[in-house]
Amino acid sequence: MACAVVNCVVRCALRVVMCQELGPPEALVVQEVDTPEPGAGQVRIAMKAAGVNYVDGLISAGRYQIKIPAPFVPGSEIAGVIDAVGDGVEGFAVGDRVFATVGTGGFAEFAIARTSQVVKIPDSLDFAKAASFHQSYLTAWFAFVRRTVVRPGETVLVTGAGGGVGLAAIDVARSIGARVIAVASSHEKRELALQMGAEAAIDSLNEDVKNRARELAGDGGVDVVYDVTGGDVSEQCLRALRFDGRFCVIGFTAGIPRVPLNLVLLNNRTVVGVEWGGWAMRNGAENGVLVREVLDEIHAGKLHPIAPVQRPLDEAGAVISDLLERRIAGKVVLVP
Question: Which residue ranges does the chain devote to CATH 3.90.180.10?
Fold first, then answer.
């Protein structure tokens, strides 16, 4: 952050990643803007790490269901230190280590957040993990504990298993006592999935996912599908489900699939939509309970968020491009 004295007033500028226009990642540029002041009920956070998620790329490209007019600063997950508080703030103070979900504005050296968006970071998390676990782990916990119930001994098939969302699903399912079969497109991603606790990994490009998953699961097929990718693999995973199985719809990084619903009807299967973000906005108090449950599991050593790769703020466009092209394994955070 640079400061200058103008007419005897100290004015400070901070570096932000600005989406100048909706479109390709090249439209994301680093520029300086005035440092914002927190209003009533708000805090200002000196960012130490900002999680980069697939949805950030969709929003910047104008391809998400929520349209944000440009220019704006993308980035929804941050972790850092509170350096200023607004009027009426209780429970937080300058110097607190926190993470926050801010919607937009996260790819910046400083960000403003409402206190309802802010959570103190426990000692079990560093800044990088705190900025990158929230969306992926809350989605998986919401899916397996609220939207459906995964039981010990059941088998869960996870697509997109080498990305941050898939790895979190593996970790959460294993913490419940489920078996996990991973589906991923590269050797690196499959290795990460196995390291996280999957008992087997299927090559989605070169193997028959349905037959291989049924062979590995035994007993008529898998109990639960956690489908992150969509695309052509969705129908194969649906066919891998046993009678009475559950299919959790998480996302569509490979495109929105078209699946024959007779596969649902004839086998008494259940399709479950999992949209944690929208639910959390409508159910703040319940989401607070969900966050605390996940943090307690992390503190107890039952959940194990991976250490993300750290990239400088200036590389935001390149990171978003890699995410949209599905070239990233694991998680990535931007650092100032």
Answer: 12-132+308-335
Q: For the domain made up of 12-132+308-335, give the CATH fold.
A: Quinone Oxidoreductase; Chain A, domain 1 (3.90.180)
Whole-model pTM: value is 0.92
53 neighbors 71 (Cβ within 8 angstroms): no
Cα separation, 26 vs 29, in Å, equals 7
Alpha-carbon distance of 106 to 51, in angstroms, equals 8
Distance, in Å, from the CA atom of 210 to the CA atom of 204, rounded to the nearest integer, reads 10
Q: 248 and 225 in contact (C-beta within 8 Å)? A: yes
The per-residue DSSP string of 182-209 comes to: EEESSHHHHHHHHHHT-SEEEETTTS-H
What's the rounded Cα separation, in Å, for the pair 65 and 58?
9
Cα distances (Å, whole numbers) of residue 300 to 95, 125, 143, 174, 303: 25, 12, 21, 14, 8
Q: 135-277 domain in CATH 3.40.50.2300?
A: no
- For residue 325, what are its two tokens? 């092209």
Give the single-character DSSP code of 327: -
pLDDT, tens only, 75-132: 999 999 999 999 999 999 999 999 999 989 999 999 999 999 999 999 889 999 999 9
Torsion angle defined by CA atoms of residues 76, 82, 86 and 90, in that order, rounded to the nearest 10 degrees: 100
Q: How far apart are CA 310 and CA 247, in angstroms?
A: 33
Q: Please identify which residue in the block is written with the tokens 């929230």.
A: 134
Identify whether the C-beta of residue 15 lies closer than 8 Å to the C-beta of residue 110.
no
Query: Radius of gyration of the chain from Cα atoms?
Result: 21
Beta bridge partners of 275: none
DSSP 281: H
Residues 6+ apart with CB under 8 A from 258: none
Query: Would you put residue 88 in left (φ > 0), alpha (ψ -120 to 50) or beta?
Result: left
pLDDT at 80: 98
Of 299, 327, 286, which is closest to residue 52 (Cα–Cα)?
A: 327
